[in-house]
């Protein structure tokens, strides 16, 4: 009976072990199926090798990349997969790959028709006792990614070139307005220079006749009569004012040409101290000369108003801001423009106000972005404020927009100022 009882227990144990073994086999098959499905669905190349660098397993992505079955690679040296330029990495497998992980190392693998660049990552495999038994290498083909980057870079270069052309177009538009103002301003001083010179020429003829009479030895009575007839005394009195007017006209022409030279100068010009008041008044004068209607303009700036930087570039900024203000008040029945400035601490400030419709609050955070404009198509490129913002920033300053107490918009510029003796006006 004892023997029979023991046999029954042994049979029960065998049955239980058999059931557990079948369960373990089922779980193992499920795990193997799961791992196989993961490996087959991987788009990246996977290579498993031992500590000697011999291939133990690869996935379907490597089969597709190399055109060879996985069984053909099992047992082969890892270096057989790589192009000559990358064999050194595979040959240093034990010395390098098993000691520390490899991240994003670019290698070239032999493909079906040509070498394929891969971004390779490698991790060491360990046994339960934490001894290295091999490595797992994961490689991602970077050919498509590289071509995408190249296309992106090309598109970016094209966009930069287009933006550069638009910026140049905006500069040329500003330069066109400036040249129109210069042409208008040059006409006035040149006209009275020419007029004065012609008058001087007539005076010279009369002086020649008078002096010729003196040299001829005429009688004193006749000489005095001729002096009165030719109005020599009045001519002598007019000579000094005429010459002063001629010199003033010439100086104005010189100043206009100098302002034009500064404006058209590149950004690589040397920084220098200059009178910002003169720059602002000149820029405003040229823009307002081209306005199609009268605008109530008031300019309140300290004298002198010294700044450090590129006068031509800041001239362009002021012209852009004043032009925007003029455009904003074009439909207003009583257009107004106010320009104020002062100094505070180590900064100087300049404000341009208008009583136009102003800037919508939703547009304030985008107003200095390239190509952003609310003007109708064909009347603005949206680059003027972006260019102005960049110029002011390069000068170490700030350019902000807001609501003016006139009811329209205000643009405020703050710039580092030249250290100068004397009092400072407080900013509002």
Automatic annotation (TrEMBL):
One of its GO terms (biological process) is regulation of DNA-templated transcription. The keyword Protease does not apply. Signal peptide: none annotated. The keyword RNA-binding does not apply. Residues 31-101 form the PAS domain. It catalyses: ATP + protein L-histidine = ADP + protein N-phospho-L-histidine. Residues 181-419 form the Histidine kinase domain. SMART domains: HATPase_c, HisKA, PAS. It comes from the Bacteria. It is an enzyme of class 2 (transferase). Residues 142-172 form a coiled coil. PANTHER family: SENSOR HISTIDINE KINASE, TWO-COMPONENT SENSOR PPRA. NCBIfam families: sensory_box. This is histidine kinase.
């Amino acid at each position: 009976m004892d023997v029979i009882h023991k046999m029954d227990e042994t049979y029960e144990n065998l049955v239980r072990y058999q059931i557990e073994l079948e369960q373990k086999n089922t779980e193992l098959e499920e795990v193997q199926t799961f791992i196989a499905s993961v490996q087959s669905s991987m788009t990246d190349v996977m290579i498993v090798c031992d500590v000697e660098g011999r291939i133990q397993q690869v996935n379907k992505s490597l089969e597709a990349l190399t055109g060879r079955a996985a069984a053909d690679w099992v047992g082969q040296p890892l270096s057989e997969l790589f192009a000559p330029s990358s064999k050194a990495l595979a040959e240093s497998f034990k010395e390098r790959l098993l000691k520390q992980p490899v991240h994003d190392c670019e290698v070239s693998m032999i493909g079906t028709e040509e070498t394929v660049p891969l971004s390779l990552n490698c991790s060491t495999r360990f046994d339960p006792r934490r001894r290295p038994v091999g490595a797992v290498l994961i490689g991602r083909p970077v050919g498509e990614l590289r071509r995408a980057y190249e296309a992106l870079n090309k598109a970016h270069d094209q966009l930069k070139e287009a933006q550069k052309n638009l910026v140049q177009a905006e500069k040329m538009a500003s330069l066109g307005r400036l040249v129109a103002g210069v042409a208008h301003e040059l006409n006035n001083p040149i006209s009275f220079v020419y007029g004065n010179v012609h008058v001087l020429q007539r005076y010279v003829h009369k002086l020649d006749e008078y002096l010729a009479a003196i040299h001829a030895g005429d009688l004193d009575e006749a000489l005095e009569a001729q002096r009165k007839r030719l109005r020599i005394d009045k001519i002598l009195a007019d000579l000094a004012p005429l010459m002063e007017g001629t010199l003033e006209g010439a100086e104005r022409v010189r100043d206009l040409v100098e302002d034009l030279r500064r404006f058209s100068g590149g950004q690589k010009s040397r920084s220098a101290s200059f009178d910002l008041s003169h720059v602002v008044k000149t820029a405003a004068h040229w823009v307002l000369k081209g306005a199609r209607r009268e605008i109530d303009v008031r300019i309140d700036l300290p004298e002198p108003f010294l700044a450090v930087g590129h006068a031509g570039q800041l001239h362009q900024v002021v012209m852009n801001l004043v032009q925007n203000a003029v455009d904003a008040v074009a439909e207003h029945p009583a257009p107004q423009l106010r320009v104020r400035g002062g100094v505070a601490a180590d900064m100087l400030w300049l404000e341009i106000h208008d009583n136009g419709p102003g800037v919508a609050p939703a547009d304030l955070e985008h107003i200095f972005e390239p190509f952003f404009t609310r003007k109708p198509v064909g009347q603005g490129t949206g680059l003027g404020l972006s260019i102005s913002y960049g110029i002011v920033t390069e000068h170490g300053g700030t350019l902000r927009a807001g609501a003016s107490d006139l009811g329209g918009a205000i643009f405020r510029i703050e710039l580092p100022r030249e250290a100068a003796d004397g009092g400072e006006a407080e900013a509002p």
